[in-house]
Structure formats: structure tokens, C-alpha cells
């Protein structure tokens, strides 16, 4: 019996983002299972008409858009495409937050199985929550199951505690083999000003909730290390200006956007990975897994989200309070000065990913929830 899945998200590759990477992974991997047919619906980046593509075996529809407002696409085409494509689906899998998808589900008349992947609460657009909240609650009531990556997503949410009985924890996963094929090749080492410095790495969008401004403040208190920042975003200019103003140019390297191969090389060549996020918009931090699988200790923050559930304080790295530059500096200095501790945490980090976040096991768990009682077994 065929299981027909409609994956729904705001955007898709080559749009850069953790959720977009995850949706691509789900679309490709689920589509390779016997007895499964996947179609994926997203919005176009920017303005444009609806286009249909086939990418890596995925039937993808990018609904026409009139642009993005308050981080959400404005697209009547998306609502029409959702209604059309849902008619041929057994289960609709929606990735939230994405208010346009909440509206599309409500207007579609779809009566099949609905599974939500709850990646984060809406944090920044607080003024719009008066309008969004009833819509989101209605979607949660309609859902047959709500997937979260960690218990922290449930406990830290303003919405999910009321719907605990529907929640299922399915962690994000990595294709482990993809990260073990490179030794780094001196990717970061070749860029060091001081060849003896400990290499600290961050990658992500340069936006407010990532806390890179806090990381730069911390580096004024850090010795014997150099920081490598990979990514672009609205704060890039101000971050570069801060580094220049405080004479950090010799120890802080802005790498810009890195393609996948270079990014994997950076993970493999760094000594410490830092995720200094300051708001629960950072709900998980897949980048932690990418560093951990390469055997690197992680410094993260104690957000009320899934972040501290990924890399565990005192086991795979260190966790510090968000927005605390002094504590962040202390954590970096602690790991930088103790190579044996870095090795211990790094080994435990790699083992944790292999045991808990292996993509092959994650896809099986995901399929089980999506299928519900429709199918019990699947073969790859």
C-alpha cells in the first residue's frame, strides 16, 4: 500500500537554513523508501510565479510569491497549491512556524492525517501574535501528532505544553558518513595569524538571535585563540566594525558563506565549536551535531529550547548562560587551556551523534509517526 506524503515548508534548497536542510533531507530520504511517494510544497524566495521542479528525485513545487513580510511569504498561490496537492496526500507534514501554512491547512478542507514538525515558537514578531495565536492553536488542535526534536522544545514552548499527549520526540539527524570523509586539510589552520592558536569556530546566519555580538565581546577576554566566523547576514557589517574598533582583526576571521565541502573541512579542522545563541528562536542548532560528529567539543547556551539538550554540559562540552560574555569567555579559556578535556568531550560528542542522531534511525522514527496506523513496516 502506497503512503503519499506532502512535505510543506516556507522554503527549500538552495535557500540556506537549518529547517530547509532538514526538509530537503526528509523529502529525499522518505522518497527512497519502498511504498512511499513524496511531494514537497514551498514558496519561492522573493517575487515570482509558481514553478515546478525535480531536484535529487524530489517533486518540488515553489508557489508564486509577492515577497516576504515579517519573515513570512505572502502567497495566494501557496494556498491554492496546498489545497490541490493535499487532495492526493494521505498525510500532510507541515514545518512550523509558518503562519501561511496554518492558514492554508484551515482553508484546504483536508481531512487526512496531519503531522506538524514544531521547530520553534514565533519569537520576534510579537505584535502579530494577537492574530497568529488563534490560528496556531487551531492547527495544533487539528494535528494528529506534533514532532519536536527534544523535550526542551515542548517544555520551553508557549504553545506545546497544552498538547503534550500529541507530542512525539524525533531528533534531527545527520548522514554521519558525509562528515567523516575529510580531515580538514588545514582549512582553518592555514588562515591563522598565530600558528599555535586554538581554533574556535562558529557558523550560522549573522542575525540577532545567534549572539555573535556576545561572542566578539567575549573574545576581548580570551587568550591564545583565534575565532573563525562563517556566514552572512544583516549584522555582518556591524560585527566587522566592532572587531576592527576593538583591535580584534588579528584574532577574528570572517569567512563569509562557505559551500558544503569547505564547511565540513572547517568543522574537521577546528578545536572548539561555539553556538552563542541568545533567544529561543535557536530551537536546536543542527550545527552542533555537525561539529560533534567530527569529534569537537561544543560551547552552547542554556536557552529554554532544545539547544542544551543537543550538546550536554559536562559531557560533550560546556553550557553557559545566554548573553553572558564573561561566562562565554571563561568557557572558551577553559577548553582552550586543556587539550585532554577537549579530546574527552569531543569523543563523547561523536559517540552521542552516532547513537542518538544517526539519520538512518531518525528517518525510521519519522516514517512511523507519519504513517500512523496505515503501514507498520518499511524497507529501504
Main features:
13 helices; 8-stranded mixed sheet; single chain; globular; alpha/beta; 380 residues
Characterise the protein shown here.
The chain contains 13 helices and 18 strands. Helix content is 36%, strand content 21%. Mean pLDDT is 92; it is low at 375-380. It has helices at residues 18-31, 76-86, 99-108, 129-142, 151-155, 212-219, 236-245, 260-269, 286-293, 307-310, 325-336, 339-356, 359-371; strands at 3-8, 36-43, 47-48, 51-55, 58-63, 65-66, 68-69, 72-73, 91-96, 113-118, 145-148, 167-169, 198-203, 225-230, 252-256, 272-274, 298-301, 317-320. The radius of gyration is 21 Å and the shape is globular.
Order of strands across the widest beta sheet?
Answer: 4-5-2-1-9-10-11-12
* Biggest beta-sheet profile: 8 strands, mixed
Binned strand content: 15-25%
Average pLDDT metric: 92
In terms of structural class, how would the helical and strand content be classed?
A: alpha/beta
Number of strands: 18
Which radius of gyration do the C-alpha atoms yield? 21 Å
User: What is the rounded distance between the termini?
Assistant: 15 Å
Number of helices: 13
**Percent helix among the residues?**
25-40%
Which spans of ≥5 residues are poorly predicted at pLDDT below 50?
375-380
Which overall shape is indicated by the principal axes computed on the Cα atoms? globular
Amino acid at each position: 500500500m502506497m503512503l503519499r506524503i506532502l512535505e510543506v515548508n516556507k522554503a527549500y534548497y538552495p535557500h540556506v537554513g537549518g529547517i530547509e536542510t532538514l526538509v530537503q533531507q526528509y523529502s529525499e530520504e522518505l522518497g527512497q523508501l519502498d511504498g512511499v511517494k513524496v511531494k514537497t510544497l514551498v514558496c519561492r524566495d522573493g517575487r515570482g510565479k509558481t514553478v515546478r521542479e525535480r531536484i535529487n528525485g524530489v517533486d518540488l513545487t515553489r508557489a508564486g510569491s509577492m515577497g516576504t513580510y515579517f519573515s513570512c511569504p505572502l502567497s495566494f498561490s501557496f494556498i491554492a497549491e496546498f489545497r490541490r496537492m493535499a487532495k492526493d496526500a494521505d498525510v500532510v507534514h507541515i514545518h512550523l512556524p509558518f503562519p501561511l501554512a496554518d492558514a492554508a491547512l484551515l482553508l484546504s478542507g483536508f481531512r487526512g492525517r496531519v503531522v506538524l514538525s514544531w521547530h520553534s515558537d514565533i519569537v520576534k514578531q510579537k505584535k502579530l501574535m494577537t492574530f497568529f495565536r488563534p490560528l496556531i492553536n487551531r492547527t495544533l488542535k487539528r494535528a494528529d501528532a506534533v514532532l519536536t526534536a527534544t523535550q526542551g522544545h515542548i517544555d520551553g514552548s508557549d504553545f506545546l505544553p497544552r498538547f503534550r499527549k500529541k507530542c512525539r520526540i524525533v531528533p534531527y539527524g545527520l548522514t554521519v558518513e558525509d562528515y567523516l570523509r575529510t580531515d580538514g586539510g588545514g582549512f582553518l589552520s592555514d588562515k591563522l595569524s598565530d600558528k599555535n592558536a586554538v581554533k574556535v569556530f562558529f557558523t550560522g546566519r549573522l542575525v540577532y538571535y545567534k549572539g555573535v555580538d556576545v561572542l566578539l565581546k567575549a573574545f576581548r577576554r580570551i587568550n591564545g585563540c583565534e575565532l573563525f566566523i562563517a556566514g552572512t547576514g544583516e549584522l555582518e557589517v556591524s560585527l566587522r566594525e566592532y572587531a576592527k574598533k576593538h583591535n580584534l582583526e588579528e584574532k577574528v576571521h570572517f569567512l563569509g558563506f562557505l559551500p558544503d565541502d569547505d564547511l565540513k573541512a572547517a568543522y574537521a579542522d577546528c578545536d572548539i565549536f561555539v553556538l552563542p545563541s541568545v533567544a529561543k528562536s535557536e530551537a536546536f542548532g543542527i550545527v552542533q551535531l555537525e561539529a560533534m560528529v567530527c569529534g569537537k567539543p561544543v560551547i552552547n547556551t542554556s536557552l529554554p529550547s532544545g539547544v542544551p539538550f543537543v550538546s550536554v554540559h559536562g559531557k560533550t562540552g560546556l553550557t553557559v548562560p545566554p548573553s553572558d560574555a564573561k561566562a562565554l569567555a571563561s568557557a572558551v579559556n577553559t577548553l582552550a587551556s586543556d587539550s585532554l578535556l577537549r579530546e574527552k568531550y569531543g569523543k563523547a560528542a561523536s559517540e552521542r551523534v552516532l547513537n542518538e542522531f544517526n539519520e538512518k534511525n531518525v528517518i525510521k522514527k519519522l516514517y512511523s509517526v507519519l504513517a500512523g496506523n496505515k503501514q507498520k513496516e518499511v524497507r529501504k
